[in-house]
Design a protein that fits this description.
By secondary structure, the chain is of the alpha/beta class. The protein is built from 6 helices and 9 strands. The protein has one domain: Rossmann fold, CATH 3.40.50. A 5-stranded mixed beta barrel has the order 5-8-7-6-9, surrounded by 4 helices. The structure holds uracil (URA). Uracil binds next to strand 5, strand 8 and strand 9.
Length: about 270
């Protein structure tokens, strides 16, 4: 563990600043830090450096505050945050993001809890070979599923696919070049046939890096695109889902922490 006054270079936070937080909620978009903060009884902004905007949030029934840190878009910047947060003592990493569904039974605004993710990105292979599975923490998945069920929020859980690009890797053609290289042509249909639920850009790196480092991770995302209908994302879908997404994430932390207090957890 580093000196508690030492400020981590990228995220701009020190151990002293996070007041013993063990859980972090990680949206991609810095603007979502305030949306997640509002789901707690009390919160305060901590700082802003690059894409890493942070806040500390408090709930009556949690013994330590919950950290909220945005990670920007994609795996490399998310993993920078994971590394630095782990050095500060954070042990539970919950991505709270957005995703594009590829299965027709998933509606805009539904939440998708990832159990595992296809590694269509490069960052995770810097930590573990490609044969290493990108699997979320079973206890956190369970807490998310219970939270969504208890709150009556429409949700699905299963396999997701994490791509390093928003356009070609997700087989989108509404880009400047409008070209999908051969490697990715037909892949949306293939993932769909293999029961993958949706595309996003960070889950697999989060799962591999956390698992390799002995940390716990999971992900819940709001569906903002229904890819069998259109390629574009819908602001309305996010607006509809954002409060549910925040409530489910906070309730999942509460349920998971309650269990971790009663059982001697892996992280003491
Ligand atoms: N995020 C993605 O990576 N893809 C989508 O379609 C929506 C959100």
């Amino acid at each position: 563990m580093t000196d508690s006054s030492h400020v981590q270079y990228h995220i701009g936070l020190s151990g002293a600043m996070i007041e013993g937080a063990r859980y972090v909620l990680m949206p991609g978009d810095p603007a979502r830090v305030s949306v997640l903060s509002a789901a707690f009884a009390r919160s305060r902004p901590l700082g802003q450096n690059r894409e890493y905007h942070s806040a500390l949030a408090y709930a009556e029934d949690l013994p330590t505050p919950v950290l909220i840190v945005s990670t920007g878009i994609g795996a490399p910047s998310a993993v920078v945050a994971i590394e630095e947060l782990a050095c500060l003592g954070v042990r539970y990493f919950l991505r709270v993001g957005t995703t594009g569904a590829i299965q027709e039974h998933i509606a805009a605004g539904d939440l998708i809890i990832s159990e595992a993710s296809v590694r269509l990105e490069g960052t995770s292979s810097h930590y573990a070979p490609i044969e290493y599975p990108a699997a979320a923490s079973i206890d956190l998945i369970q807490a998310l599923r219970e939270a969504a069920r208890a709150l009556g929020v429409p949700h699905h859980s299963g396999m997701t696919c994490s791509s390093d690009s928003f356009w070609p890797g997700q087989e989108r053609r509404d880009s400047f070049g409008a070209y999908v290289p051969r490697r990715f042509q037909g892949t949306l249909e293939e993932w769909r046939r293999l029961n993958v639920l949706s595309y996003e850009m960070e889950n697999s790196a989060l799962f591999v890096v956390c698992r390799a480092l002995g940390l716990d991770a999971a992900s819940v995302c709001a569906t903002v695109a229904c890819r069998w209908q259109r390629e574009a994302v819908s602001h309305e879908a996010y607006a509809k889902a954002k409060d549910d997404l925040a409530r489910v994430a906070v309730e999942a932390v509460r349920r998971h922490a309650a269990r971790a207090i009663n059982v001697i957890g892996r992280h003491g």
